[in-house]
Amino acid sequence: MDRILTTAHDLHAALAAGRYPDGGPVRVLDVRWWLDRPDGRPAFRAGHIPGARYADLDTQLASHGDPSEGRHPLPSPDALQTAVHGWGIDDGDTVVVYDDVKNMASGRAWWVLRDAGIRDVRVLDGALAAWVDAGFDLERGEESTGRAGTAVVSPGTLPVLGIDDVLEHARSGLLLDARAGERFRGEVEPIDPRAGHIPGAVSAPTTENVDESGRFRSPDELRARFAGLGAGPSADVGVYCGSGVSAAHEAIALSLAGYRPVLYPGSWSQWSQHPERPAATGA
Known about the structure:
Blueprint (H helix, E strand, L loop, with lengths): L4 E2 L1 H10 L8 E5 L10 H6 L6 E2 L22 H10 L7 E5 L7 H10 L5 E4 L2 H7 L32 H7 L1 E4 L3 H4 L17 E2 L15 H10 L8 E4 L5 H11 L5 E2 L3 H5 L12
Parallel strand pairs: 1-5, 2-3, 2-4, 4-5, 6-7, 6-8, 8-9
Helix pairs in contact: 4-9
């Protein structure tokens, strides 16, 4: 659990030393992405953590096929392997991911890499703001080029829910919806074909997992939060969101709280594309 997050000061020290004392050589991924501005490269060029590589959520951490698969299906093993090599990741490296939206986007990189068998992936707690607030310098311009990495990915390490598994999971376990409450209730739907939520799901906006500074709440606070939503100590907790991005952030929070979450990668963007699948509205 204590290896899920890293502080800005610990990352700065690891970069200076070339490695983490409890890990390996450091590789840093900048995963800036926003729903209305998916290309984070301009922001990356304007200032990033020194030595970071840019990870494109839309093209490297997701694939794109038929709309029935959702907006951000998981990347194919071959595409992810190419990306990991391009990022310079070797077996035994400690990979640190960050963004500038409280890790709502970089959580996707954490989940995808952990699922692919990269053992030591850490999230910069507080995201880029924590680095800046600590007084550390940013590097500007294009990413530095380096040799290709040698790590071999093997997706499938973490448990997932398929579209045919979700309703049963909501009945037999606990299914959390990480979207904003108004989307869960069906009051608004800005992007997907239908409004509402998967029947039996419980509203659990992922924004409530962090404090005002964007840092994750303590494990005790998170356990109390999820217990209040119905998660007992050994609960089988599934999670989804709009397209499987912020749900990964909630998976981090659940992991910090001591659960072993199950992600539904297709999320509402897949479910809502299938009119034969039921939808619920209201609280």
